[in-house]
Automatic annotation (TrEMBL):
<keyword id="KW-0472">Membrane</keyword>
<dbReference type="InterPro" id="IPR001295">
    <property type="entry name" value="Dihydroorotate_DH_CS"/>
</dbReference>
<keyword id="KW-0560">Oxidoreductase</keyword>
<dbReference type="InterPro" id="IPR005720">
    <property type="entry name" value="Dihydroorotate_DH_cat"/>
</dbReference>
<dbReference type="InterPro" id="IPR005719">
    <property type="entry name" value="Dihydroorotate_DH_2"/>
</dbReference>
<keyword id="KW-0288">FMN</keyword>
<comment type="pathway">
    <text>Pyrimidine metabolism; UMP biosynthesis via de novo pathway; orotate from (S)-dihydroorotate (quinone route): step 1/1.</text>
</comment>
<keyword id="KW-1133">Transmembrane helix</keyword>
<dbReference type="GO" id="GO:0005743">
    <property type="term" value="C:mitochondrial inner membrane"/>
</dbReference>
<keyword id="KW-0812">Transmembrane</keyword>
<comment type="similarity">
    <text>Belongs to the dihydroorotate dehydrogenase family. Type 2 subfamily.</text>
</comment>
<dbReference type="InterPro" id="IPR050074">
    <property type="entry name" value="DHO_dehydrogenase"/>
</dbReference>
<dbReference type="GO" id="GO:0009220">
    <property type="term" value="P:pyrimidine ribonucleotide biosynthetic process"/>
</dbReference>
<dbReference type="GO" id="GO:0006207">
    <property type="term" value="P:'de novo' pyrimidine nucleobase biosynthetic process"/>
</dbReference>
<protein>
    <recommendedName>
        <fullName>Dihydroorotate dehydrogenase (quinone), mitochondrial</fullName>
        <ecNumber>1.3.5.2</ecNumber>
    </recommendedName>
</protein>
<feature type="transmembrane region" description="Helical">
    <location>
        <begin position="69"/>
        <end position="86"/>
    </location>
</feature>
<dbReference type="Pfam" id="PF01180">
    <property type="entry name" value="DHO_dh"/>
</dbReference>
Amino acid sequence: MAASSTLRPLRLRGVAFPTSGLVSCQRTCSVRGNNWSLWHSGKRLASTATPMTPPAATAKRTKNAFGKYVFRASLVLVLLGGYFYVTDTRASVHRYVIVPLVRWVYPDAEDAHHAGVVALKELYKLGLHPRERDTPDRDGKLETQVFGYTLSNPIGISGGLDKHADIPDPLFALGPAVVEVGGTTPLPQDGNPKPRVFRLVSQAAMINRYGLNSKGADHMAEVLQKRVRDFAFAHGFGEHDAGEQRVLNGEAGVPPGSLLDGKLLAVQVAKNKLTPESDIAAVTRDYVYCVDRLAPYADIVVVNVSSPNTPGLRGLQAAGPLTEILKGVVGAARGIDRKSKPFVMVKVSPDEDSDEQVDGICHAVRESGVDGVIVGNTTNHRPSPLPKGYVLPIKEQQTLTETGGYSGPQLFERTVALVSRYKDKFAAEGSPKTIFASGGITTGKQAQAALDAGASVAMMYTAITYGGSGTVTRVKKELREEREKK
């Protein structure tokens, strides 16, 4: 049946309703519904669309990002520059800032000494230690021959600065060709009561009565053995005893003590305070025990019979007892299980300077087969202040009355004179010996004077405590300048 073209009236329970209004409502609702649907869809689109960023805001954001980049890059450059400056021994901060700061923070000189050792040790572990850059010794102008080795320069650091062999490598990094550690004794001993180290700042000098405080030869042997074993492992020579022995026998191509080409490690040994100096056999056993334990890890063994702070020790410099002691030490050193044996030197006092005393020491050195002499040590004398006529401050005048060995620039002339005398004595006997000069050397000019007097190496200690980590570098620079004048 065909669909009707007109709408019939709606009937509900017999009542007729017109449909025209219904159609109109239907159309209207349909249109409104469509409008609602479009509006609702538009709202959804609007809510998901990315808002437009004004150009000014974009430019500001770019500028801020660039500023942060520049700041961070600048910070990195500043830190990097600071690192290279502070870790360079040529930096004046070591002498003019750090040294006075340490003196201010640590009024007690021994506390300052301990803090300095700890700082160097920890900084070395982190790679933040001061060191020579540009390898100034590579020009070969300061090379010198010592015990058949070609040393990179003739400057050394004396014993006492590194008493327990805690920092030989950080000290080598400062530029010397010789580092002396110790002195050590067979058994641990505390040394003298504190306070025992005193400054005379106006004189760049010190008085100390440490009394050979030591952790003992066994402790130092463990420290040095570990150093050699770490080196052996790091350089592919193996571990434990096998690697250690290969390095000690020279397979690494470097001296077995220093482990560095052109450098030597000296180990200073002494007797215990409680060993009676009248019992020469017991004293000799003390020295020989130290040699047995430490000589395998040393290029040079230094026999200390000249400390003024151990009662009776300087009495061992008499020809008879000294000859017996040195013979025992030389025999022990030559018996070390190593292809190249350590050389033996004796450290003598600047106060034993009479002809009879010098002759006796030279006799003992010659008769025992010792290889050389270190001239000298601290002195019991109290030299006049420098410059001549200078009046010490009241506090330093009081310090000057303290018991102990004096060290500082005032010892220089005495050291050079004594070096010359020992050189002449050995030469006259037809048995020249290697001589190291130690005492009062603070400048390159003084170092050259000591070398001209007959020393092969000029050693420093007190000069470093006042001059800081850059002292060796400065002295070597001055030494080059002195030689260029000739």
